[in-house]
Amino acid sequence: MSLDAIPEWATLLSRPARPSIRSMFADDPERAARFSFDVGDLFVDLSKHRWDDQLRDDLLAVARVAGVFEARDRLFDGDRLNVSEDRPVGHLALRAPRGEAAIVDGVDVSADIERERERLSRFVDAVVDGTIVSPAGLAFTDVVNLGIGGSDLGPAMAHRALRAHRRDRPRVHFVSNVDPAATAEVTSSLDPRRTLVIVSSKTMTTTETLANLAAFERWLEPVAKSRVADHLVAVTVDVEAARRLGIDDERIFPFWDWVGGRYSLASSIGLSLAFAIGNAGFSELRAGMRLVDEHVRAAPIERNVPLLVALLGILYANRDGAETKAIVPYAHDLDRFVDYVQQLDMESNGKSVGRSGAPLVGTSGPIVWGQPGTDAQHAFFQLLHQGTRLVPVDFIGFSRPATDGDLIGDDDRHERLLDNLLAQSRALAFGRPWDETALLANAEHREFPGDRPNTVILAPRLTPSTLGQLIAFYEWVVFFQGWIWGVDSFDQWGVELGKQMAGERSQSDASTELLRERLRRSAT
Ligand code: F6P
Question: Which of 16, 36, 173, 437 is the most interior residue, by most CB within 10 Å?
């Protein structure tokens, strides 16, 4: 079923225009409290949105008819929700606590998951404590993860976000782009004798990753000679492909076809992250994800916060014409978080046909963009406040700095950071009344109409657990939106043609030929 086929959506659209956000606050002193919610350690303020009780109920009626809770239960069962590829979707099983059944496509896979968690954990400990050393007999001091998309973004984002939780050794690095610069930037500071290389690829066919692996093998060969493979580890679904690379079985960490790349962080794809924050930290991240999973499983529909956020996003996309949504974390360490959500959201819901294969009526996944505040205020907040476009904003903030060790002396900068977050959310929602602006010079240029919806998500500190909660929160928003839009959120046929053309230098067209000629001429 798609949105346009849901009668309750037509009912919603027929409602009279509602008052502004400012007016709704003026009419209801309890609004802030009534539209704010707890999810695990997250506090989610949905009061500065273009909705009231009636509109919330209209949206929930749409969700009920769309069958969101039946879909949710199917996801918990690891059903074949990836309909176009007829594959189970089982990433929730990866965060099931030890000892609990984890069903995927009717099979309890908890023993497989636990076995691979144990293997990964023992390997990390053995490298860290020096039981496993390099062919030169030296401890591995650096780990490089080669991967791209879901085989890079999750661990790389989390490694960046959890700066305050990283251990001193080994240092962990990430190479994703096939641009030689990406590798050079990393190898310039490394000793090949002490470097462990993880090749992370679900399919082990991604050309960028394989080309970068070949480059690292050339980089390692002078010191490792015939033992380059002793510097390598593979994380993949295709174990045979890893063996063909000469990697021994005890250095291959498999995961499963029912784990989508952009949903794979809690699988062995998290190996590089476990090196960075320790096995305990990796386990805390999974537990944080589980907290939100449990909220989604148990919360009544009117307090199911990822569902409410998903419905608000649909309201702005499909009723109000919002083409994009901005995510602005007021946390420097979350400067890769938007990149991560971009793949999660846009590769899941950037579709124009429904699960049945029929063209969608109306819009689907938004363009996700953003960057940390306060930098964002000096980049694009002009457009957010006074532009012609509706851009819903997600603000993310933390009560305390990532670590008190970041503070210098009598330091009020974290408070200033939060003051800015709260001020921007307020200014977007409420604007400035015209009768105040009218008194100013250049008044016409200084109008702030407000009524620009935004969500504020707060957590106590940025930790493995709260990061896991944020990741799962956005996964669920994407899941509910995709289900209601009627798309298959778990395939990605759209990345196929570009990959295919990149490999076909012989095939061409007039523009590509002209560009290639230009490149040839200017390369000499
Ligand atoms: O971007 C397309 C994609 O297939 C992603 O879905 C995936 O995460 C990425 O490429 C890398 O794929 P692999 O892990 O198989 O190398």
Answer: 173
Query: Is 385 noted as a catalytic residue in this protein?
Result: no
pTM of the predicted model, to two decimals? 0.98
Which residue in the list 116, 217, 347, 475 is annotated as catalytic?
347
Give the atom of ligand 1 at the shortest distance from the alpha carbon of 147: 16
Phi, psi of 350 (to 5 degrees): -80, 65
pLDDT of 224 > 90? The answer is yes
For residue 262 and ligand 1, the question of a CB distance below 6 A is answered with yes
Given the residues 30, 240, 378, 444, the one annotated as active site = 378
The closest residue, in CA terms, to atom 3 on ligand 1 is: 149
Cβ of 492 less than 6 Å from ligand 1: yes
**d(Cα 204, Cα 228) in Å, to the nearest integer?**
18
Is 332:406 a contact under the CB 8 Å cutoff? no
* Ligand 1 site-directed mutation target among 91, 146, 202, most atoms within 8 Å of CB: 202
**CA–CA separation, 60 vs 66, rounded Å?**
10
Domains of the chain, by residue range, sit at 3-12+28-66+299-402+455-491, 91-279, 494-524
Tell me which architecture the domain covering 91-279 has in CATH: 3-Layer(aba) Sandwich (3.40)
- Which bin fits 260, alpha (ψ -120 to 50), beta or left (φ > 0)? beta
Q: Which CATH class is domain 3-12+28-66+299-402+455-491?
A: alpha beta
CB 151 within 8 A of CB 261: yes
For 445-478, give the secondary structure using H, E and C: HHCECCCCCEEEEEECCCCHHHHHHHHHHHHHHH
Active site residue 165: no
Give the tens place of pLDDT for each residue, 287-299.
999 999 999 999 9
The fraction of the chain above a pLDDT of 90, given in percent, is 96
